[in-house]
Structure formats: C-alpha cells, structure tokens
Amino acid sequence: MRLAMACSGLLVALLLGAPAWARAQETDRSDAERDREIAELRRQLDVVLDELDRLRTTTAVPEEPELESAYGLGPGASKVYGASHGLSIGGYAEAVYRNRSGDVDGDGQDVADFVRAVLYFGYKFSDSILFNTELEYEHAGTGGGGDVSVELATLDFLLTPSLNARAGLLLVPMGFVNEVHEPPFYLGTQRPEFERRIIPSTWRENGVGVFGRFGESFSYRAYVLNGLDATGFSSAGLRGGRQKGSEALAEDLAGVVRMDWDPVPGLRLGGSAYYGNSGQDQDFTQPISTLTVAVPGTPTRIWEVHSEWRRGPLQMRALYGEARLSDAAELSTALELATGEPIAEQMIGGYAEIGYDLMQWLSPGSEQGLIPFFRFEYVDAQHDVPRGFQRDRSQPRRLFIPGIHYKPHPNVVLKLDYRNIDDWEGEAGDEVSVGFGLVF
C-alpha cells in the first residue's frame, strides 16, 4: 500500500511539475524555485526506492546461492534468523519412486510417493524476538496415510550468543537429521534407520529450553519436554511413542541435552542424551483380553555420539547410539504383545557413510555437485529383550547403501540409491530408489 501511494505521489509530482516548468519559462521564474522542485522530485523518488528495498529484504527471498544453518536448524528453517525484520518464507519438498524386491518392511510392492511438501513461516518482531514454524503436508494429503501437521513452532528470545531461550513445539536435538532433515543436506533417498526407529525423526515435543554457543567452536541446546508415550513403543523401536505436540500427555516430563564441538574447520564432534519416564500415569485397555491395566513408568534413556568431516570434496559421517528401557517386561505384558514381538530393554545402532564430490574435480568452481556415496547401517531394536520373551527376528539389522547425488543447484538434488537389507533371518529384500528434493 505504501509503495502504491509513493508511486502515485511521484506520478502526480511529475504531472504537476511539467506545467510548473512551462510557467517558469513563461514568467522567467528564478533558478532557486526550479532547484526546489527538482529536490522535491528527488526526495519522492528516494521514498520509492527505499520502499522497494524494504519489501525485498522483509520477504526474505534469498539472493545467496546456498542457504545456511543457524542455531541447529536446517538451512531452510533458518531463514528467519537472517531477516532484518518482518515475515520470512521458505520450504522444502521431496518425492521418491521405490522399486522393491522381496519383503521390505512387510511390503514387497513398488511405490511412487510425493513424500512431503513443507512450508516455513517465520516472523521477526525485533532483533531479539522471533517466531518460527514448519508446516508439513505428508504423502500428498490426508487420505491414504498422508496428513498435515506442525513439525516446528518456536518462540525464540535471542539474548546473547551464549544464552538464548526457546519455547513451543521443539525438534528434539539428537543425531544428524532430526533437526536438519531437508533433503539436499543428507545423503540417500531415505533417512538412516537408526534415526527413524530409535531416534524417531521427525521427533518433536512441547517444551522450553536454552541454546547458544561459546566462541566459534562450541554450541549446545538443553530442553525440558513432555515425555514419550510408552503405549506406542513396539518391537520395531520407539517411533510410535512420539506425541507430536497434539494434546500431549505431560504427566511425565523429560530432559535432553546436546553439545557439539568444532575443533577445526570442517570437523564436528558431538553427542546428546535424553532421559524421562514414558508411562504418563495412564491406563491401557488390552486389545485381546479387554482388561484395563496400568502402564508402568518405563524410564527411557537414549544417547548418541556423532562425528562429521567436510573438507573439500570429501564428506564423512558416523553415529552410534543406544536406547534403554526399564520396565520393558511389564510394558510388553501390559500392551499384550506376543512372545515374539516384545519391546526390548536395550536397542542399539548406528551408521557410517562417505561421499566424494566429483564435480569439484571435474569442474572446479562449479556450484553443481556430483556425489557418489556409500553408507553402512546397523540397527538392532531387539538387542536385549526381557527374560522370558523371544526376539522379533523380522526387523532389519544391516543395510548396505551405495548411491549418488546430483545437485544441479546447491538447493536442488536428484537422488539414486540401492538398499541391500538383511534381517535376522537373512535377506529381507533389496530396494532401488530414485527421487528429488529441494529447499528454498
């Protein structure tokens, strides 16, 4: 509106100015009067230019070729932190086609899936107060297993570099991809199994906390959250225990701490730990007997350590972690799980991957990327089961994943990979996937 008014004012000034100059010539008006009119026109033009510049900066349309991460969030989710003030908009999307052979996750059918389309909206009220959200449309709608959900909604108070406050629906700061899950920034068409089953990405809960960094090399995040819901745990892991901020039970709270150290450029070493009860002081109606039983407290401990190296064309990642559940036997009994599908007392896993950007060798200085990679994963959600129960042998155990990423633009990626999956009984099946991802 202000832009339209400024343009209208400039047009009126020009229309009125022309007769004024004509009259000046007729009446032999002084040079000082003409100078004043020219100065006024220049002032109005400056108003228009200032308004155009304000609109350009406050809409947060990136001019840089590559987005940057801030405060542990993904580059797309971090745009609001770089805005001068007002509204910022971003997002990401990904789609995949999977060709399956054998029994993968209980389903050998091929699948074409528009996995998700995500919009980020942020608003910067001042230099120290901002709101950030992530809205996800998953699997192309609310039918056929898709849904619409809020995956991030935080009110941040930026106080000092070393101490800031955050409240709302928080991404749990564990592993690599739970916070930075935009597809151009991790290798493979799918997120690692450990970071889906044990660190159940995308994992978000309601809570409050602090975050910051000391110098250029040390950063941290520490939150208090509502706990997990143990009635969603299974032999496959903890993924079903996420409450996702939707009328979440908060009888049991949990705490999580993450620390990262960047001793030299390109190297990151870090770890995180989570602890809290997951029983939520609730009753559960058993599906077979229809009896109502009390859910045990189920203290839940998760920890992981990670390292990352990025230097020149080479990139490497490694992660190892564990989850331990007390009351696993009581919980498995309360949920009336079959003998061969218990919830484990201990779950372990991790992965290591390496990639090399050939484009830095083939075309030095190019913004494009061509990254062949290989990842080995190990995940055992049935590592130690309660006495008297037998392991669920249908769960994946080892995965061998070669693939390639092609980035025609730093924020756009085309992906191809092959997943060879072993379960406890041997070959679970193979899977070839091709897809694309983008962030803006």
Biggest sheet, in brief? 16 strands, antiparallel, barrel
Low confidence ranges: 1-24, 59-65
> Could you tell me how far the N terminus lies from the C terminus, measured between alpha carbons in angstroms?
27 Å
Order of strands across the biggest sheet?
1-2-3-4-5-6-7-8-9-12-13-14-15-16-17-18
Radius of gyration: 28 Å
Q: Looking at the structure, what is the overall shape?
A: globular
Helix content: 10-25%
Q: SSE string, helix = H, strand = E?
A: HHHEEEEEHEEEEEEEEHEHEEEE
Number of helices: 6
Helix-and-strand structural type: alpha+beta
Based on the structure, what is the oligomeric state of the protein chains?
single chain
Give the total of beta strands.
18
| Percentage beta strand | over 45%
Describe this structure in words.
With 440 residues, the protein is of the alpha+beta class. Helices cover 17% and strands 46% of the residues. The protein has helices at 2-27, 31-58, 79-82, 194-197, 328-334, 359-362, and strands spanning 86-102, 111-124, 129-138, 147-160, 163-171, 204-214, 218-226, 253-261, 267-277, 283-285, 292-294, 299-311, 314-325, 346-356, 369-384, 396-409, 412-423, 426-439. Strands 1-2-3-4-5-6-7-8-9-12-13-14-15-16-17-18 form a 16-stranded antiparallel β-barrel. The chain has a two-stranded antiparallel ribbon with strand order 10-11. A hairpin with an 8-residue loop joins strand 1 and strand 2 (111-124). Helix 1 packs antiparallel against helix 2 (31-58).
